[in-house]
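Input (UPF0250 protein):
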Amino acid sequence: MTQDLHNPDNQSLIEFPCDYKFKAMGKNTPDLVETCFAIAQKYDSQVKRDQISLHHSKGGKFISVNITIYVTCLEQVHGLYADLKAHPEILMTL
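Output:
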């Protein structure tokens, strides 16, 4: 059985404030990393570039951008994922 961390009924699954790692995937372009970083900065103005880790697909066509940010409430997490999902360069989020 899986639990949806993005469901308001499951607020107790994450204790706030906390460091929160998100993953966004898309085509391997320089703009994708900058886009993800800009969205992360919207929710954590103190986020640094050294908090980014990248993982390339086997063929190099896609990239996974992982960034850890500091969040204080569930609304920040919901807003972050809404912004990521709304961006056309981002194909999938985790």
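Helices lie at 30-43, 74-86.
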